[in-house]
Amino acid sequence: MGPYILRRLALIIPTLIGIMLINFILVQFVPGGPVEQILARIEGQGDVFGSFAGGGDDAGGGGTDAGDGYLGARGLPPDFIEQLEKEFGFDKPAWQRFLNMLGNYARFDFGESYFRSISVVDLVKEKMPVSISLGLWSTLIAYLVSIPLGIRKAVKDGSRFDTWTSGAIIVAYAIPGFLFAILLLVLFAGGSYLKWFPLRGLTSDNFADLTMMGKVIDYFWHITLPVLASTISAFATLTLLTKNSFLEEIKKQYVMTAKAKGLTERRVLYGHVFRNAMLIVIAGFPAVFVSVFFGGSLIIETIFSLDGLGRLGFEAAVSRDYPVIFGTLYVFGLIGLLMGLVSDLMYVWIDPRIDFETRET
């Protein structure tokens, strides 16, 4: 298994470079870079330029009239624009900026945000608790509910239980996450009905003053509704995937042979079928985890006033904060590729008969 792991790790490098290169090229064609963003803000705020450039005496004083003091009318000094471009590194050709970026990222040096005056690493650490909470609990709940439910549906295939549960999970899948989140707020967070859960945030204002047990209760009190809203659509796919996988295995000859030997249904199901049927479910774990953890949380975070990686990525894209955009893309891309390798290792752990060593790469 060692050589296979080394080959997969070696393939991560060119794959990650390809991801970064494609996105870097695409960004070059998007108008309104960080320099243009700053210039637009300055021209729209009058004497903000004076404080920004250190020229407070020139802005609105010394006998100049109102027209002369208006920066949008006067235009910005070319040397100031050149200074901005140099500060952001845009005085260098694109290929050189890309190579410099890769060199820094290889050392996990992601630089500093253009507009927040904080390093990208510290910014991600600041937003990470929200995304970890949503991603971890949503994935855990989805698997804890969907796998037993899918197994039960496979055993009771065609029964009334199977029919009703299929209808319920299809309806749940059809409900948009943001609509369900709003419904939860209206019903349980001080809308028109009950006020059982808080309206916003991950913790209460007095969180630091609470006891350890109080902090745990307060945390789960705040995270319940966002997790439910982000999990509802994950049940359908995972439940039906588990059911179909078990149905396929139950019909195989070795299951009939095990039953003919007198083994109980539970022993056959969990001693023989489970290991084979769960392979395809585990194969989808990295995609489920990464999608819930890093994507699709923007709307949920906005509705519940949570400041996580979803909002961070959106705000960085809107403001053209390139260090945040590419830094998070690099880290999340690396994690996604590593999760693919973890998925293969879990294959082998569940079924030792699988041998990736003999597979050609």
Automatic annotation (TrEMBL):
Q: What membrane topology is given?
A: Multi-pass membrane protein
Entry-linked NCBIfam families = PRK15133.1
Q: Which UniProt keywords apply?
A: Cell membrane, Membrane, Transmembrane, Transmembrane helix, Transport
* Name this protein carries in UniProt: Microcin C ABC transporter permease YejB
InterPro entries the record matches:
MetI-like, MetI-like_sf
Query: Which CDD domains does the record cross-reference, listed alphabetically?
Result: TM_PBP2 (cd06261)
Q: Which organism is it from?
A: Meridianimarinicoccus marinus
Transmembrane regions listed in the UniProt entry: 9-30, 130-151, 163-189, 219-242, 277-304, 324-350
What family does this belong to? Belongs to the binding-protein-dependent transport system permease family.
**Where would you find this protein in the cell?**
Cell membrane
PANTHER family per the UniProt record, alphabetical: INNER MEMBRANE ABC TRANSPORTER, INNER MEMBRANE ABC TRANSPORTER PERMEASE PROTEIN YEJB
Ranges of residues in domain ABC transmembrane type-1: 128-347
Report the main location listed first in the record.
membrane
